[in-house]
Amino acid sequence: MELSQFPYLRTMILQANDIHKSFGQLEILKGVDLSVAKGEIVSIVGASGAGKSTLLHIVGTLDKPDSGKVTINGVDVTALNEKKLSQFRNEHIGFVFQFHHLLPEFTALENVCIPAFIQGKSPKEAEKTAMELLERLGVQHRAYHKPGQLSGGEQQRVSVARALVNNPALILADEPSGNLDSENAASLHQLFFDLRDALNQTFIIVTHNEELAGISDRTVHMRDGLIL
Ligand SMILES: Nc1ncnc2c1ncn2[C@@H]1O[C@H](COP(=O)(O)OP(=O)(O)O)[C@@H](O)[C@H]1O
Ligand SMILES: [Mg+2]
């Protein structure tokens, strides 16, 4: 029996309701609704300029909607002040971007530890979790190298480990394989599914990669600020 047949039995990780966002005169999001259940892998696809990154930023609490409500893990994040919000983001949301955004002067291991340090974990505890993740992602042999010494595929794996280190409720990825060759892209995508199977992680992934969209649990199409 598939649990997905009974949506009301599933834990909802994200509920975004009637999200509106304008930049100046330009209306970018025109009333977007999106719900994602725990353990779901949802792809967002659509032409450049459709509003995908804007939506992801709002869902990720990096930006605020003009109106509408975002609930993550049962918390109305649109009601939190900046201080509470950054704490919530650090604890509950992991980000993976097209460009890894690893800090060049720190090793892979240190990069993965940083969000855990911000949460107040001890170096010992943070490093243990970070090492386990690097191992799970197959890059433990690169732990003491700096990002500049890693391949593109390895850099992305390290940034996925960083996204996971605080065991977030939700991982948001904006074109995570956009900068990878097809082989590295396919193996990164496989990793998302492995993480879902092993840790019941939840993913929302903006992608132009049709293969990834095809194997996702659900694909959401965006056009001109609306979900179709
Ligand atoms: N901070 C901003 N200020 C002004 N315009 C923006 C800003 N962010 C995005 N936009 C505009 O919003 C539209 C949607 O952008 P975006 O969400 O990045 O689309 P997508 O990720 O689907 O390509 C684009 O026309 C873009 O130029
Ligand atoms: Mg974008």
From TrEMBL:
InterPro entries: AAA+_ATPase, ABC_transporter-like_ATP-bd, ABC_transporter-like_CS, ABC_transpr_LolD-like, MacB-like_ATP-bd, P-loop_NTPase. Residues 14-228 form the ABC transporter domain. Keywords: ATP-binding, Cell membrane, Lipoprotein, Membrane, Nucleotide-binding, Translocase, Transport. PROSITE patterns: ABC_TRANSPORTER_1 (PS00211), ABC_TRANSPORTER_2 (PS50893). CDD domains: ABC_MJ0796_LolCDE_FtsE. GO terms for cellular component: plasma membrane. GO terms for molecular function: ATP binding; ATP hydrolysis activity; transmembrane transporter activity. The keyword Transport applies. GO terms for biological process: lipoprotein localization to outer membrane; protein localization to outer membrane. PANTHER family: ABC TRANSPORTER ABCH.1, IMPORT ATP-BINDING PROTEIN. This is Lipoprotein-releasing system ATP-binding protein.
